[in-house]
Specification:
Layout: E1 2-7, E2 13-19, H1 21-24, H2 30-44, H3 103-119, E3 123-126, H4 136-146, E4 151-155, H5 160-166, E5 172-176, H6 182-187, E6 190-194, H7 197-205
Parallel strand pairs: 1-3, 3-6, 4-5, 4-6
Antiparallel strand pairs: 1-2
Length: about 210
């Protein structure tokens, strides 16, 4: 098992913790990480773009001018896609872009993402982060002490003061262990884990 220092919010070492090799020492395969991130981003697409077809446009069905003798192109009604305000040909319609992957692949990709942070020495374990009230400045001070300015903070339970304190800081995001995902782990340069969250991660990924 990998041994990592446990720090307090001042960046001082207070103890050590063992990280299971089955989760934090997995060979990283970029193609699988790319596949899972692509799936996550596809699921976030709104897919609400929509246009009006010729049949959806409100307008008269009268023929604009006679078929022959004017020297102009033949015209039907005002709903023609060739005219301003007419229907759109082959335009987008609401669509669900999401798709799924096998659970084993998603679980393995998350292990790889966590392993990559440990390999890059961008994983920090903190004993606890307790705030009496929401204070943005306090989170900035903690990030500076840990030297983790661009970080994903992982908690094991709801921590309203921490979540409210970090929500307005660019480059800082707080997420609970049940919402841990590959995209967020890879998006942020550093990963800050509250020590109690390690057990939650083991319980989720050791299945």
């Amino acid at each position: 098992m990998a041994v990592v220092d446990v720090q307090n919010i001042k960046g001082e070492k207070v103890s050590e913790v063992d990280l299971p090799d089955s989760i934090f020492d997995v060979p990283v395969k970029s193609d699988l990480l790319h596949e899972v991130v692509k799936m996550q981003l596809a699921g976030r697409r709104s897919g609400t773009a929509c246009v009006k077809n010729r049949s959806d446009v409100v307008g008269s069905g009268r023929k604009l001018f006679r078929q022959k003798g004017t020297g102009r192109a033949r015209r039907g009604n005002i709903k023609s896609p060739l005219l301003k305000g007419g229907g759109v040909t082959f335009g987008p319609h609401p669509k669900d872009y999401s798709y799924t992957m096998p659970k084993k692949k998603k679980r393995l990709a998350l292990k790889m993402a966590l392993s990559s942070k440990l390999e890059e020495k961008a994983l920090f374990v903190v004993d606890k982060i307790e705030l009496e009230e929401p204070k943005t400045r306090k989170i900035v001070e903690i990030a500076n002490a840990l030297k983790a300015d661009n970080a994903l903070i992982l908690t094991h339970e709801k921590n309203s003061n921490l979540e409210l304190s970090a929500r307005n800081i660019p480059g800082i995001k707080v997420i609970r262990s049940e919402g841990l995902n590959v995209y967020d782990v890879l998006k942020y340069r550093n990963l800050v884990i509250i020590e109690a969250s390690i057990k939650a991660i083991e319980g989720r990924l050791s299945v």
